[in-house]
Amino acid sequence: KNEVEQSPQNLTAQEGEFITINCSYSVGISALHWLQQHPGGGIVSLFMLSSGKKKHGRLIATINIQEKHSSLHITASHPRDSAVYICAAPINMEYGNKLVFGAGTILRVKS
Amino acid sequence: GAGVSQSPSNKVTEKGKDVELRCDPISGHTALYWYRQSLGQGLEFLIYFQGNSAPDKSGLPSDRFSAERTGGSVSTLTIQRTQQEDSAVYLCASSLSSGNTIYFGEGSWLTVV
C-alpha cells in the first residue's frame, strides 16, 4: 500500500463544475504539497499547507492533519485546468524530509 | 535563470551506452530530489540529497543508477549501460530545505533505442 493515496485516478468534468480531488496518507506529516503537471509540461507547486485551508484564485486546498486527509477543490472549472494533480507528503527521515508522491489524478475539463 | 535547470532537455541514446543528466538547483536550496516519470505513469522517487548528509538512495532501481551532488549544488544522475526500460522523463527538484515549497525543473527526456 502506498503511503500516499489519491482519488479519483481519472476525472472528467464539464466546464463550470466544482471539482474535488482527495489525498490520504498513512504516515504522520507536518505539511502536504499539491502539485500540478500540464500535459507535456513541467510541474509547478500549487500549495504547501500544514493546517486549515489555503486559497489561490479558483483553487482551494484543505487539510486535516489528525484525519490524515487533504482535498484540492477547483471552483468554476475551465478546460485550461486540465492537468495531472499530484499530492506529496514529506516523510520524516533522520536527516530531513523525503517527499512521497501520490499517483496523481488526471483531470480533463470539457467545454 | 532563477529556476531549477536541467540538461540535456532531450537525449536519445543507444542501448548499452552511459548517460549523464545534470541538475542545477535554485541557488541556496539544500534539498535536491531526482524523480523519473515513465510515459503515462506517476512520479517515481530515485534519490534525495539534503545538505551534507548522506543521500537517500533507496529509490534507485538498480546499481546502474548513481548520483552525485558536488559542493552542495549541482547534481549529476548517471545511468550506466542504459536499457530500453530506462526511457522516461527524469525530473529534478529542489527546495530551500526539506520542509519548504518544492520547485521542479523541466525534466530531461531520455529515450533509449
List keywords for this structure.
heterodimer; A: 111 residues; mainly beta; five-stranded antiparallel β-sheet; 11 strands; B: 113 residues; six-stranded mixed β-sheet; four-stranded antiparallel β-sheet
Task: Tell me about this structure.
Chain A has no helices and eleven strands. Chain A is mainly β. The radius of gyration of chain A is 14 Å and the shape is globular. In chain B, strands 2, 4, 5, 8, 9 and 10 form a six-stranded mixed β-sheet that branches. A four-stranded antiparallel β-sheet of chain B has the order 1-3-7-6, with no helix packed on it. Chain B is globular. The model of chain B has no long low-confidence stretch (mean pLDDT 91). Chains A and B meet through strand 5, strand 9 and strand 10 of A and strand 4, strand 5 and strand 9 of B.
Number of helices of chain A: 0
Strand content range of chain B:
over 45%
What's the β-strand tally of chain A? 11
Number of strands of chain B: 10
For the largest beta-sheet of chain B, the strand count, sense and barrel status come to: 6 strands, mixed
What is the count of helical runs of chain B? 0
How far is it from the N-terminal to the C-terminal residue of chain B, by CA? 32 Å
End-to-end distance of chain A: 36 Å
Largest interface: A-B, 23 and 25 residues
Question: SSE order of chain A, as H and E?
Answer: EEEEEEEEEEE
Rough shape of chain A? globular
What structural category arises from helix and sheet content of chain A? mainly beta
The rounded Rg of chain B comes to: 13 Å
Low-confidence stretches of chain A: none
Q: Roughly what percent helix of chain A?
A: under 10%
Major sheet summary line of chain A: 6 strands, mixed
Oligomer: heterodimer
Radius of gyration over C-alpha positions of chain A, nearest whole angstrom: 14 Å
Low-confidence stretches of chain B: none
How is the topology of this model organized?
The complex is a heterodimer of chains A (111) and B (113).
Chain A: E1 4-7, E2 10-14, E3 19-25, E4 32-37, E5 43-49, E6 52-56, E7 59-64, E8 69-74, E9 83-93, E10 96-101, E11 105-110
Parallel strand pairs in A: 2-11
Antiparallel strand pairs in A: 1-3, 3-8, 4-5, 4-9, 6-7, 7-8, 9-10, 9-11
Chain B: E1 5-7, E2 10-13, E3 19-24, E4 31-37, E5 44-50, E6 65-69, E7 75-79, E8 88-95, E9 102-104, E10 108-112
Parallel strand pairs in B: 2-10
Antiparallel strand pairs in B: 1-3, 3-7, 4-5, 4-8, 6-7, 8-9, 8-10
